[in-house]
Amino acid sequence: EAEVAQSPRYKITEKSQAVAFWCDPISGHATLYWYRQILGQGPELLVQFQDESVVDDSQLPKDRFSAERLKGVDSTLKIQPAELGDSAMYLCASSRGASGGLETQYFGPGTRLLVL
Amino acid sequence: EDQVTQSPEALRLQEGESSSLNCSYTVSGLRGLFWYRQDPGKGPEFLFTLYSAGEEKEKERLKATLTKKESFLHITAPKPEDSATYLCAVPLGGSQGNLIFGKGTKLSVKP
To answer: A-contacting residues of B 26-45, CB under 8 Å?
Structure first.
């Protein structure tokens, strides 16, 4: 069964350092999402791509976060500089399309970030 | 404001003790509702999609139902391996895929 891949699984960094997360969606899935999940909360969308284009980045803190999906396949999410409040689980999900939010989103295992 | 509220926050059951989890939502023009299961330290795992009031879906010991204001996840004769956090989510009104998640219900099933 095809899965969403993410790396690294865990990342510990000091504040003001740069960090990057990688995601490889399920093959053939055109839509890719990055979510952030704080412990005890539900995931919150940071950015959504349709192929290589950004569809929604309204919740992305653009002063420190950036995301790209250059060839419309895998994607990288970067934080520079990291702050203590960025400690969270970063989840990548993919779906075949968007269809107004009705396509099933399949999640990867996540990257647990701890900022010291 | 679009919102999803889940209750209870935590639920402890004995093995075999059936119960229900609630997900209430306020969203303009509901287009669908999703249920996910999340184990500690892992990503959410898709369970069900419900599209309209009155719809029901089942998978093993789980049954999801939908009304115009809420959804229920019924767990029949749960086993310890059903222990997890159960999340529900709805598409944000007018969005292209932004899911609004509840905080989840943490279910513990004791043998």
So the answer is: 31-32, 34, 36, 41-45
